[in-house]
Predict the 3D structure of the following.
Amino acid sequence: MKVHIFLILRFLRLKSGFLLSVLALLSVLGIFLGVTALILVTGVISGFHSEIKSRILSLTPHILIQRFGDEGIEDTKAIVDKLRMINGIENVIEYRITKTLFKNKDFVDGGVIRGLPEENFPLKERLKKSILEGKYMESDNSILLGEYLAYRLRAEVGDSILIVIPLEDKFSPMFFPVKTEKFIVAGIFDLGYYEYNASFAFIPMRKFKRLLKGPNRLLEVVLKEPYNADIIKKKIDGILKYPFYSLTWTEMNKSLFSALKLEKLALFLILSILIFVASFMIMGNLFVLMAKKTREIGILMCLGFQKNDVFKIFLMEGLLLGTVGIFSGILIGSFLGFIAGKFKLIKLPPDVYFIDYLPISLNLKDIFLILLSSFLIVIFSSTIPAIRASRILPRDALRYE
């Protein structure tokens, strides 16, 4: 093995030829750039996916229960008692939400108003921490506005906001009844999620019930472990038969998660092709090396080297070049990703994306997958010239010597 390593290092020396040295450098550089790009892009997609998931989990109900036909749930207490017996469910609370118009002076905008129960749950806890101005609502006539909604209404803390709610159950072609109510802006929040900041407002649940009377149409299930939502859903469906049905937070955002997963796979394949193309430089380097060292290969085989030994030398040389490029790409890519993610260097427009900066998250699973796929590509590119070199016959190599 020491002889193999000696020969590999000797073939890589600058004295072996300018062309070989340049090809070796380009081989390493190509693999390095491909792996670095793959690390960064995979980290961006993983970070974006994780950030979106964490924000959705803190804002979206883990599981929503409703009736077919959008009818109200009459016996709410009996259903809540049944659900609380399921292991993994932390709480079951009312979920009341409706579309409305907001009016402040001469400014009008549409949005959604939601009632907040007195119980603690993920959204309420996060809402308390995300108040930019003012404070969490204390009276029944208090309202919390998202920062972009407040900006469009030109509303400030202490302003009186008029909300206009259509009464859907009394709607007719000739008559469109609405209900109006005034609220005092207690606070303005930033939940870090554009859709909520731009269209949501919150009022106390007891005020919501007085404003819109009637049976509740939805129940929110708060889980101890949100990622077990699919398992808990099956248990809920086993207890609550037709006409009830449930939706998990993944089902409510299925199109978004599917798009992110497909995007990550597509980018991984595209950048893997980039590494594959870069690996052809290794193949070219080995073919040039074989052509220039044909005489030396013939001499080595006359001295007792077997075809297997020649194959190992060329394969190990290709792997050496690939290894330098792969590990340097992983190190530099991971470092750049860590710096960009730590200091939030890349900003995003929140009205286009769900978040205002580009998160980068590197996990061992993705790094291992990149490492494995890169090595497989390098092995494939090194095997072909190695096989060709091992088939050189001494008589052909030394025919003209």
About this structure: The chain has a mean pLDDT of 85. The CA atoms of residues 103 and 352 lie 25 Å apart.
